[in-house]
Amino acid sequence: MSSPAPISTLADLRRTVESGAVAHRRVHEEIRENLIRKLRSGERLFEGIVGYDDTVIPQVINALLSRHNFILLGLRGQAKTRLLRALATLLDERIPVMPGCEINDDPFDPICGACRARIAAEGDATPVGWLAREMRYVEKLATPDVTIADMVGDIDPIKAARSGLQLSSELTMHYGLLPRANRGIFAINELPDLAGKIQVGLFNILQEGDIQIKGYPIRLPLDVMMAFTANPEDYTARGKIITPLKDRIGSEIRTHYPAGRTEAMAITAQEAWTRRNGAGPAAEVPAFVAEVVEEIAFQARQDRRIDKRSGVSQRLPISAMENVISNAERRALLAGEDVAVPRVTDVYAALPSITGKFEMEYEGELKGAEAVARDLVRNAVATVADGYLSHLETRQVVEWFDLGGALHLGDAMGASAVLEAAGSVQGLLDLARAAGIPADAPAPLLASGVDFVLEGLYATKKIGRSEERGYHATESPARRQARDVLAADDPPVAPVAGSKKKYYN
User: Fold this and answer.
1) Do residues 134 and 184 lie in contact, with contact meaning Cβ atoms separated by under 8 Å?
2) Domains and CATH numbers, the chain
3) d(CA 48, CA 268)
4) CA-to-CA distance for 168 and 217, rounded, in angstroms?
5) Is the pTM of this model over 0.85?
């Protein structure tokens, strides 16, 4: 609701509403009408939400058009809270309220006893205040220690004593979060963590649209839209949503992780602190480094050593990318370079931002979080490198190592030192350029390309590498030659009857 002219009294407001210049409606209807207007104009809904255009957002739109209260059900890091907060953009820019009222009472239809008394006394001269849309969104993180008084309210005996009122008087109430969200949106995060008896307290507001406080004959017919989030793991690990409450929630909408690396990279680019400011060097992230960072999360979500019920948050690649850039910054500062270009090996330096982002199964606990994270990084590099190098001829570089060549690249080596060392490896610089590095690329970017090629060959087991980043052949030339001869001379053995595997001598 917007006001074309100054409106300061109830009489002014009434004339404006009667003229049609200002609309008067309930919250669900207000959100529905504003949503319809945005859909007709082609305006983008829910800025900052990536990857849900064809899945989650259409279901949210359907729930809002149906005037439903709804719940977003999904694993950690799936933008559930961000989506709820974006609902506030569907509210009017501001609405008229009774000034000083704790529950944002409607001047035309007050539910608060004090506001009704004021209007009865002052009539059309009653002053009118205005409430901005950002003040109409109330959010509560559910925790086991939340009480019914926190959510709904309680009787304040001190207020009753000071005012000389009976405890049953409506004027002695201390309002909770839910009444204070009147004429707005009330969101509860992690609903299953809310104690069952507190969930029972939400029944009336979802179905009958009112609440009762402390068993006294006081009813507040609130005008509020409710939205919730929950993690499926919570149903068994910490708590559950009681069945009668689930029955009263209009729509249950499932969220999900990004479907592919492109969507995931867009989220990370949006959320990660990649554009550094201040006295540090400028950061330039190559596409293959961004893909490797993103692929780690995809590898983790399908790794049997990681608990899939907990999920792997999209915060993993966001935090990892920030650490990767910081490691590149540190190297650039030590080398006196103006541009910080991350390398694939910087991802290993970002392990502290990775290991805390997933829960381990028993097998993973035995191996250790850092060892599992290193495996995830190597698998991610192998997957990404296969897309860049599979169509290129890498034999020349691999043979250089097979013939006894070795190359050592320290983590703190500047770009010039890396390129000088790489020049001794036949075909390595050409392979880096063929993998997507422009011919006129500056030294830090070309050095990152060299690092990517070497790490890609190592991850795909074509060359070996020590923990100190010494690249070498995976095995001695004599052993490789003997193995190749045996593989060429010995035909495969027929598979054993009843077995799906092939066995070779």
Assistant:
1) no
2) 24-254 (3.40.50.300), 261-477 (no CATH)
3) 11
4) 8
5) no
